Amino acid sequence: MCQCNQLPNVFLGNDESHPFDDTLEELEWAPQRWATLNRCPECGQLWHIDIAKQNDIGVCAKIPSREVWHQLDTTNLKVQLMVQNRGGLSDDTCQWKQCEEKCVKGLAFCPSHAYFEMDIKQ
Ligand SMILES: [Zn+2]
Ligand SMILES: [Zn+2]
């Protein structure tokens, strides 16, 4: 059995370091985006996997469809990963002026304000 179900939606990894043991089929290779699209032959789950890059964390992420992958902004995956690392969202509202988004747990800001404005990357 494959382990796709047990893996989180997004986690750290790249094409040289991931938990799939070469079981995935590579569908697309997009070096200009540092991205690969892969499919699990057992359950059909699509996976985005970053191409390994120096001084940058890579991400692996579940992808709902090929079309979504073509428009994928991997920065958003890193934002999701930061939120996931911190345990998700809280019920507080972001302190940023006029922002109504929920805060990341333990922070006073929503995911995008924490990541892009406060430079909280992990
Ligand atoms: Zn699978
Ligand atoms: Zn905000």
UniProtKB/TrEMBL annotation:
Q: Look up the domain of life of the source.
A: Bacteria
Q: What is this protein called?
A: Metal-binding protein
